[in-house]
Amino acid sequence: MKIKFNRNQRISCITKVLIDNPNKIINLNNFTKMFNAAKSTISEDIVIVREALNKLCMGKVETVAGASGGVKYIPQISSEESKEFVDELCEILKNPMRIIVGNFIYMTDILYDPYIITRAAVIIASKFAELEIDYVITVETKGIPLAFEVAKLLGVQLLIVRRDTKVTEGTTISINYISGSSKRIQTMSLSKRAIKKGSKCIFIDDFMKAGGTANGIINLLKEFESEVLGMGVLIDDVTTQHKLVGEYISLIDFKGIDENGRVELVPSQKKHP
Amino acid sequence: MKIKFNRNQRISCITKVLIDNPNKIINLNNFTKMFNAAKSTISEDIVIVREALNKLCMGKVETVAGASGGVKYIPQISSEESKEFVDELCEILKNPMRIIVGNFIYMTDILYDPYIITRAAVIIASKFAELEIDYVITVETKGIPLAFEVAKLLGVQLLIVRRDTKVTEGTTISINYISGSSKRIQTMSLSKRAIKKGSKCIFIDDFMKAGGTANGIINLLKEFESEVLGMGVLIDDVTTQHKLVGEYISLIDFKGIDENGRVELVPSQKKHP
């Protein structure tokens, strides 16, 4: 005997499945089987879910036509919620206790906090929602959780570029690049197996200084005949004015530490396209 | 004028909020404000969500009493779905094209695939749901997405132990450890700011060979007067029979590559407590 579901119950479960699979097309047959219900019933359920999430700017539910069609959930966040989150994050990071030797701001705890990273990732992912990409790419280590979460929300695979080469990666391609700020030569590598030729990527990282790493990623991807369509960072060091890369998005501008030891951080002033 | 929500719509949005905040207590006032509805109405909505998710083993919704009380969502996966996922993952990893020089299995793509990692993480997190922990800890790099996702599902912060020391970490404590398989001396370090004394952690990683890394983590945490309450890995190399650590969970047993070049992988045979 099949379990029966009423509309309320189906709506809860459909919402769960959609939220768990952002930007993945889910065929309605999955739901008709799951609930032992007619396609027309499921379609009505989905209309309700779409309207509900839409009302609170919690994301879009789009219908994809065709044989491999179905519905997909596109994460969103309201501009008020986004603003509130970024303001709050600035306040957290301004804490003078975070200043460490060398005038760095300790922010590792923020970068590894799922509560913060999932919110930052929705804001960043929603800026790239219109792009057709194959991968999100980042470089180890601190930006990995953010990049992973953005990849998940965009429904694509993550690529992590390594600073070293590992036997478990198989054949790799390594490039040398000059870090924009310290002018040191560094190496980054990616497995030949990791990426298909002709891929389109977005680069996600925690922090942008001069953009040397971002530039390195662009050059590394050229070796794979692939390209970077967009870039996003959590924090942009605007004290480094000459950037090696073009357009990118950021959530927070870091304006340095003033003579009184105050950390200057503001929501990003860049105009995002 | 406040937007009105009917029950169906509230249920969709409540499900969304719960799923997005696993193991976090959400006060009912959040929902009464969000929907401009009475607490009794919200309580009824939550009962429906609980029953719906419960029917399909999609997770538990628990009520937490007291002043700071509310509801929280505890992720779950049905044993059939879990079995199906692990079987499928074994098949993917058995592909002989994955064998790389040195008789390693290339699995980086799997470890950075959000679709796979989120499912593996639910299975692993649900084994540790009863533990009261402060952190999920891992070591860079390949296990980070899995560990991050487990941390998110358990509602705690992630810690990433580094192989090197970075100026952006402030003061760090480093230990040397001997990798159980290669017998090489290696270093791992953690920022003093990263963790509170007396913390309880679980260690999550992608692969366990002899357990040298896991053992190193246990010793590193001792320096912070903290302890490992549990360990979980995606794949256990059972060809290395002598393990340096005690109890741990794993999803897949790697039994080596046979003389015909077949990769032997099976769902983990360990009895999980």
UniProtKB/TrEMBL annotation, chains A, B:
CDD domains: PRTases_typeI (cd06223). Pfam families: Pribosyltran, PuR_N. InterPro entries: PRTase-like, PRTase_dom, Pur/Pyrimidine_PRTase, PuR_N, PurR_Bsub, WH-like_DNA-bd_sf, WH_DNA-bd_sf. One of its GO terms (biological process) is negative regulation of DNA-templated transcription. Coiled coil: none annotated. Residues 6-75 form the Bacterial purine repressor N-terminal domain. GO terms for molecular function: DNA binding. The keyword DNA-binding applies. Belongs to the purine/pyrimidine phosphoribosyltransferase family. PurR subfamily. Homodimer. This is Pur operon repressor. The gene is purR.
